[in-house]
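From the thread on structure requests for the teaching lab: each student submitted one protein with a one-line request. Submission from student K.M.:

"Model Nucleotidyltransferase domain-containing protein from Acidovorax benzenivorans, tokens only."
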Amino acid sequence: MHTPLSEEIAHTTARLVVEEGLEWGPAKRRALRQLGLPARTPLPDNDLVEEAVREYIQLFCADTQPRELRALRQLALVWMERMAAFRPHLAGAVWHGTATRLSDIYLQLFCDDPKSAEIALIDHHVDYEPRTVTGFHGESVEALSLGSKSPELNEMIGVHLLIYDLDDLRGALKPDTKGRTPRGDMTAVRRLLQETTTP
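Reply posted by the TA:
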């Protein structure tokens, strides 16, 4: 149930997501602080935040965001091709179309051996930082985080390779509550790039 308060929190969250590149969880918590609300205030759900992010982009970034999104998807595809052996899937804001130049790229890799992707990066002399992040089932997942230059944006972009077990791929393509595919493989990303030409 969307209340005026949850909508206000969602709109403040959206501004932080778009203007500062924050992830949704931290942005929601910071929105509470900015609005002077208690930490236990119920947070808006992700659907409401996504709606607010799309509205914000439409209002304030309509002239720049499509080009930035395209550049991020092109960079994502470069890394998907490099990591093709690990069945990469693009997820998050870059996949859903709400990303700006401040957004990071999240690629989910589905590996027979969880160490194999890390070894591939080492073999290619790629500097990365291992981290633990929350996975799509709410579990802890290993992530390899690195910076990669976007030629179109002429800046460094964060790329996070999330390591999943090969068995996780089966449930990974189930549609979300809105009937959308929550992530896409290389073919799907190439199709998105073909469908969206820059003006």
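TA comment: Helices lie at 4-20, 24-34, 46-60, 65-82, 92-96, 116-123, 169-172, 186-195. The mean pLDDT is 92.
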